[in-house]
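Reading a protein record of the kind used here takes little practice once its layout is understood. Each number in the token line that follows is a code from a learned vocabulary of backbone shapes. One such record is shown here in full, so that the layout can be seen directly:
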Amino acid sequence: MRRPRTLRMRLTLGIAGLVLVVLAVVGLLVYYSTERRLAASLNGSLRTATAQAMAGTNVENGRLKLGPGLDEGVDAGDARVPGLSIAVFTPTGAAIKQTSPSRALAPNAATLAAARRGETVSEVRSDPKTGVRVRVLTTPLKEDVKTLAVFSVALSEEPMLTALAQLRWTLMVLLPLAAATAALLGYLLTGRMLRPLGRITTTAAEVSSHDLSRRLGVPHGDDEVGRLAATFDAMLERLDDSFRRERQFVADASHELRTPLTALQAIVSVTRERPRSTADYERALDDVDAETARLRTLVEGLLELARGDAAGLSVSEPVDLGGLVEDVCASLDVLAQPKELRLICDMADGLRVLGDADALVRLFVNLVDNAIKYTDEGGVAVKGVQAEGAVRVTVSDSGPGVSPERLTHLFDRFYRGDPSRSAGGTGLGLAIARQIAEAHGGSIAITSVVGQGTTCEVALPAAPQA
């Protein structure tokens, strides 16, 4: 048997099967509990009828005198107990009185033997003449240790069997009908519930890398389908944003790579136009070297960003961040001296983080180098403290500052804060710095006041104390 292909059909069949199994179990419980209840009622009627028949029976002058309950008779025609038959036998099995000619009342040898021992026997027999099933209760009447008579009281089981047969037919009809109804309702309900999934499938089929603007338009409810729709829309939003940034990145990278390549091609072409002096060739080689260095710096920045996007943080070990930043400041002081800038480094003791020391060096080299590059007078101050479980390092300069409209773009790739780009650079330094900070579980933020300077703060989780 082939498995249904659609989730809707599988859910429908599952609901119908589950309902059928549950109702079948309930039906069996109802059937057998009804059977036990009817059998108990039948046995109770037999015991009551036996007690009434035996009431007042005794021996007078050596003869058995039946009680008034039997003499007055509760025979098969009694409207109070339909199908009731009573017979009285001697201990040897001879009939004394019988309200019905049914031979089903006559006790067999085993039953008589049990009665003589004082035992009551309940058994089911079939009337040899009519084939009707009856339940017979055989009870001895004893005086002291002597058995005076044996009472056999019988009730037909036909009413009970008829009721059980009707119950069986009712269950056999209702169970499949209930399962079919459950299947129909389940089919309609699952169709309504799974309709958003169909819309998700259609939208997903229409989405491509060229058009990620499609959205489901499904109300975001609190159920599983609503949360799935919300998650799917959020995923499309992230993909759209990611693809948009990647397209912008590729376009910017192409433009930035084209500039030094074009310059190199122009230098070579102009130099080869005619024979030149040694000094001209040397100047051309100097220009080629400068453009090559610029191209190398740009390619290394791109590779750094690509590695960070693909691998994230590859090393995690305790790092003395205070000593690391002091070394960075000492190595970059040679850039501040020609501009007569003061480079101050004030790092508190015991600043330790978990991370990659080489990556952290690149992070703070970019920040301090940027501060020196865009500051013409005054100085650059680097300060590190630990507070609230984080190590916070600020790099402040006394440069011209950044306007609010450009401040939000400083971490964009290939963006340069100086619109004239006279300060040089690739526009990747801050993007790389943010990537490294986030890879370490930290953050980076920039505040600036035009005419007063810029402050960049890096917050990194502090390493647990040993």
About this structure: Residues 158-206 form the longest helix (49 residues). The chain has ten helices and 14 strands.
